[in-house]
Amino acid sequence: MKRPLHVAIAGATGAVGVEMVKTLESRNFPVASLKLLASARSAGKKVKFRGEDVTVEELGEKSFEGVDVALFSAGAGVSKQYREAVVRSGAVMIDNSSAFRMEDGVPLVVPEVNPEDAKNHHGVIANPNCTTIIMLVAVAPLHRAFGLKRLVASTYQSASGAGAKGMNELLSQTKALLAAANGMDELAERYRDVLSRVDPPSAFADPIAFNVFPHIDVFGPNGYSKEEMKMVNETRKILHEPAMRVTCTSVRVPALRAHSESLNLEFSRKVTPEEVRKVLADAPDVILRDDPAAGVYPMPVDASGHGEVLVGRIRSDLSNPDGTGIEMFVSGDQLLKGAAFNAVQIAELL
Ligand code: A2P
């Protein structure tokens, strides 16, 4: 019989934190006590957990005394600031930020893919980048079965990737545009003009309503954004394939919640779509949505609110004459499988 754990959530009032509370409840996680931590702004707020009010406390150095597991989703700066305090108190930090993901000695874990890595922690386990988690839930079983040689990803990432602030920005810009413009032509003509009169974008560098932009996080000297490099480097670390050939273009789209990805996979042997479907039908936390003629394929609106990753549009890559290429499309709720759900699954491994 497993002992119930004393759990803390840092960033409990944020988009991911709220989902962490719900996931602990929906997965019936053995919680002995729950501490909800956020900034001073939120101290005193009440949040329901298993029908009872839990009062949000201000995060501080002493917050982790008596805590077994601390789930962090308050940004990389906060994670770095409190790492010592968590480890000193004897708790295990499961960190959703990018602060420690590539650090040696910090396991980077997707429970369906590399659960055994979680054992080798020194007080901190990192939750991978959301888009990387969603991709690997579908790709890792195929790599195991057929040997992946090269991976090309193009992402379609929703506003919720920038937290509650990102979703609010999408909604407020959409409302402003719809209220100001009469019809389609006017909307297009007056787009920049209308948006210049509402609050300037703060969650995103560009307007998100009725727009897409190939810019997530800052660009590096090689021309890739940090988000794109997370897909490359984290995939290699999680799969234990330091030389895996991975490339990615990350794009923000005006979906409210759940990320999607177009994936081109090249294997070391010939693979048919039927073989791919067979492997994915048995893969944990994968749901096949693959009957395009009947309108069945992955979409963010269907992935939203679910812990599983939807996979479909599975087909042979036409441009690859030797039959080693597969195209497919995935959608997953990045607040859940890409963050809260994955973090709670890691806690379950402990
Ligand atoms: P608060 O709501 O009090 O600002 P999101 O990803 O949706 O933006 O949420 C971020 C989460 O991290 C929120 O719970 C937020 O609390 C919390 N947070 C941000 N900065 C700090 C900080 N310096 N100390 C504690 N909590 C923080």
Under CATH, the topology of the largest domain can be stated as Dihydrodipicolinate Reductase, domain 2
Kindly report the spatial arrangement of strands forming the biggest sheet: 5-2-1-6-7-8
CATH architecture of the largest domain: 2-Layer Sandwich
Q: Largest sheet at a glance? A: 6 strands, parallel
CA radius of gyration: 21 Å
Which hetero compounds are present in the coordinates?
Answer: adenosine-2'-5'-diphosphate
Structural class designation: alpha/beta
User: Helix tally?
Assistant: 9
> Uncertain regions: pLDDT < 50 for 5+ in a row?
none
CATH superfamily of the largest domain: Dihydrodipicolinate Reductase, domain 2
* Average residue pLDDT: 96
- Give the strand tally: 14
End-to-end separation: 13 Å
Oligomerization status of the protein chains = single chain
Strand content: 15-25%
Run of helices and strands: EHEEEEEHEEHEHHHEEHEHEEH
Question: If you had to describe this structure to a student in words, what would you say it looks like?
Answer:
The strands form 3 sheets. Strands 5-2-1-6-7-8 form a 6-stranded parallel beta sheet, sandwiched between helices. Strand 12, helix 8 (300-303) and strand 13 (309-316) form a beta-alpha-beta unit. The model has no long low-confidence stretch (mean pLDDT 96). The protein has helices spanning 15-26, 76-88, 130-146, 163-180, 184-196, 226-239, 273-281, 300-303, 336-349; strands spanning 5-10, 31-38, 46-49, 52-55, 57-58, 69-72, 92-95, 124-126, 148-157, 245-252, 259-267, 286-288, 309-316, 325-332. It is built from 9 helices and 14 strands. The chain has 350 residues and is of the alpha/beta class. It has 3 domains: 5-127 and 340-349, 3-Layer(aba) Sandwich (Rossmann fold), CATH 3.40.50; 132-158 and 212-334, Dihydrodipicolinate Reductase, domain 2; 164-195, no CATH class. The site of adenosine-2'-5'-diphosphate (A2P) has 18 residues, from helix 1 and helix 4.
